């Protein structure tokens, strides 16, 4: 007769000696594996005399589950010992994972969006890769028109399929046309987004910039509404003492056109172009230009961020120098 009690004692003793995962594994092979000690006992049951079989069979099966539980318990014990040991002192203060903050342009863009939302504007976005038609032609800048030189354009390589020409939008103004295709007046919308210009960089120019386009169309809107809206915006963003000036400027899709400058370190910094939406654009949208008028503007978010944070060189924004970016940690939570 097999002495199951002695077998159990022996198994437990050797299990207690297993000190790591490898030890547990070889114990499992020795006792519960295909050729393990207990497995052989179970296999041998059928050769026993008939009257011994039930008792030994039942006992050996019970022992099998007892040992399976024991090995799991031992495994947990070993794990606990590892985490209780001196290797991990849970009383030490944790290491704080570095926490980033929003990029100054994101902070500024959100602040500007909020200001316009408060003034009743909707916010939509448009594609960065744009059709030539929307970026230029339908804004009254046909091929060969000298005004195209105002935007140093980055074209998408022609794939030879004869399809329409594509480019990286040079401004957010194409969204004026796209929005007019879908919506009826009254329209009051801003379009934030990245624009691309293949121009030499200096302290106030980058080859990539963020713009916020604005479009307002309704009955009886005049240049006074344009001025009032933009001055209210600028005062909200820079405070009531900011000095502003409107000057005539030319953009083919507005008439009259203007630029808005603000006083910055003794100089004037242009922050946006604007004007009354050209009547032909209103008519192209299927609206009656005698009834509907409106204004549009496109402002540079980087320029506003420079003024707001006192950044003297626009190129800092995209240099990815973490020492510069860390200075904006203090504004965390302000967007
Ligand atoms: N899209 C013009 C630019 O990028 C700015 C602008 C927008 C001017 C809307 C007038 C009206 O320079």
Topology:
Blueprint: H1 4-17, H2 21-32, H3 37-44, H4 53-84, H5 104-118, E1 122-123, E2 129-131, H6 132-135, E3 166-168, H7 174-182, E4 187-196, E5 208-219, H8 223-238, E6 244-249, E7 254-264, E8 267-277, H9 279-284, E9 292-300, H10 301-309, H11 322-326
Parallel strand pairs: 1-4
Antiparallel strand pairs: 2-3, 4-5, 5-9, 6-7, 7-8, 8-9
The structure holds phenylalanine.
Describe the structure.
- It is a single chain.
- The chain has 335 residues and is of the alpha+beta class.
- Helix content is 39%, strand content 20%.
- It has 11 helices and 9 strands.
- It has helices at 4-17, 21-32, 37-44, 53-84, 104-118, 132-135, 174-182, 223-238, 279-284, 301-309, 322-326, and strands at residues 122-123, 129-131, 166-168, 187-196, 208-219, 244-249, 254-264, 267-277, 292-300.
- The strands form 2 sheets. Strands 1-4-5-9-8-7-6 form a 7-stranded mixed sheet.
- Strand 7 (254-264) and strand 8 form a beta hairpin.
- Helix 2 (21-32) packs antiparallel against helix 4 (53-84).
- The N and C termini lie far apart (81 Å).
- The mean pLDDT is 91.
């Amino acid at each position: 007769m097999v002495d199951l009690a002695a077998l159990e004692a022996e198994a437990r003793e050797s299990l207690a000696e297993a000190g790591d995962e490898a030890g547990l594994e070889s114990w499992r092979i020795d006792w519960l594996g295909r050729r393990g000690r207990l497995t052989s006992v179970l296999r041998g049951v059928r050769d026993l005399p008939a009257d011994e079989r039930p008792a030994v069979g039942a006992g050996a099966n019970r022992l099998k589950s007892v040992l399976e539980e024991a090995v799991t318990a031992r495994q947990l014990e070993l794990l606990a010992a590892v985490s209780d040991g001196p290797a991990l002192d849970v009383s030490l203060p944790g290491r704080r994972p570095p926490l980033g903050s929003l990029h100054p342009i994101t902070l500024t863009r959100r602040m500007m969006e909020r200001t316009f939302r408060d003034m009743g504007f909707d916010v939509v976005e448009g594609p960065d890769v744009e059709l030539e038609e929307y970026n230029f032609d339908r804004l009254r800048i046909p091929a060969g028109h000298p005004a195209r030189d105002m935007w140093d354009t980055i074209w998408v390589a022609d794939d030879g399929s004869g399809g329409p020409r594509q480019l990286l939008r040079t401004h957010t103004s194409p969204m004026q046309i796209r929005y007019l295709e879908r919506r009826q007046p009254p329209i009051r919308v801003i379009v934030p987004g990245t624009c691309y210009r293949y121009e030499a960089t200096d302290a106030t120019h980058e080859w990539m910039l963020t713009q916020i386009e604005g479009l307002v169309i309704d009955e009886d809107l005049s240049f006074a509404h344009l001025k009032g809206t933009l001055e209210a915006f600028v005062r909200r963003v820079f405070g009531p003492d900011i000095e502003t000036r409107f000057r005539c400027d030319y953009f083919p899709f507005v008439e009259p056109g203007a630029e808005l400058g603000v006083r910055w370190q003794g100089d004037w910094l242009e922050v946006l172009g604007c004007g009354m939406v050209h009547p032909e654009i209103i008519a192209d949208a299927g609206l009656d230009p005698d009834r509907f008028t409106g204004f549009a503007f496109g402002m540079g978010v980087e320029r506003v961020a420079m003024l707001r944070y006192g950044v003297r060189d626009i190129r800092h924004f995209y240099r990815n120098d973490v020492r510069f970016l860390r200075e904006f940690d203090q504004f965390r939570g302000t967007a």
